[in-house]
């Protein structure tokens, strides 16, 4: 069964969704991240995708208190993964020790791939790589800079590193309900042996149907944010379709 990950993006301690990765284009959906996490669990979700947006820009944990509240609320019932501002082995160890199921390394995967390899070695199955791409090129530092590196080339660097997944985000579609870039996402999944999670643009039940298609079986799942918050996707219907 493909996994549908509801997303909690944290900015200044509250749940938001950005448009095209722009911090100034943030819509607040819930001032209580822990309550939002509990709501997702009550809807039947088993996994949760959390991003510290401020942390991604600043290179350190900024919304740590909100993340800790989420883990306290649902960490025993949901598998929570976190990205944003995790740049050192100490960061990885801290968050995994705090009850997270998995951490996502993005900028550091470009800047210091050896650190990713060491983290994956120390914590098998609990380290993922986030690849955020704009026009096919990897973006880093909270999407503010381009690394001039193709997403597929970055993914191949970690083929033998033991990372548990790649979260692939098409920035050009993120937060605008344009639909996931299925062609690029499935092409990436075919290019590497690492499981790929689709992110950016999931818009409607049509995307859920697409996730259930045979060729999408290559994917571990997909992340949904705005479409869930806006009610464009019914959680019960979506989860039932994926189970079927």
From TrEMBL:
Q: Which Pfam families match?
A: His_biosynth
- What reaction is this protein's catalytic activity? 1-(5-phospho-beta-D-ribosyl)-5-[(5-phospho-beta-D-ribosylamino)methylideneamino]imidazole-4-carboxamide = 5-[(5-phospho-1-deoxy-D-ribulos-1-ylimino)methylamino]-1-(5-phospho-beta-D-ribosyl)imidazole-4-carboxamide
Q: In the UniProt record, does the keyword Amino-acid biosynthesis occur?
A: yes
What is the organism field in this record?
Answer: Aureimonas flava
Record-listed E.C. numbers = 5.3.1.16
Q: Which InterPro entries does the annotation name?
A: Aldolase_TIM, His_biosynth, HisA/PriA, HisA_bact_arch, Isoase_HisA-like, RibuloseP-bd_barrel
Give the active-site positions: 9 (proton acceptor), 132 (proton donor)
- Swiss-Prot/TrEMBL GO biological process terms: L-histidine biosynthetic process; L-tryptophan biosynthetic process
The gene is hisA
Q: Name one GO molecular function term.
A: 1-(5-phosphoribosyl)-5-[(5-phosphoribosylamino)methylideneamino]imidazole-4-carboxamide isomerase activity
So, what pathway does this thing act in? Amino-acid biosynthesis; L-histidine biosynthesis; L-histidine from 5-phospho-alpha-D-ribose 1-diphosphate: step 4/9
- The main enzyme category here is isomerase
Name the record gives this protein: 1-(5-phosphoribosyl)-5-[(5-phosphoribosylamino)methylideneamino] imidazole-4-carboxamide isomerase
Question: Looking at the UniProt record for this protein, which Gene Ontology cellular component terms does it annotate, in alphabetical order?
Answer: cytoplasm
Keywords assigned: Amino-acid biosynthesis, Cytoplasm, Histidine biosynthesis, Isomerase
Compartments, as annotated in UniProt: Cytoplasm
Q: So what family is this one in?
A: Belongs to the HisA/HisF family.
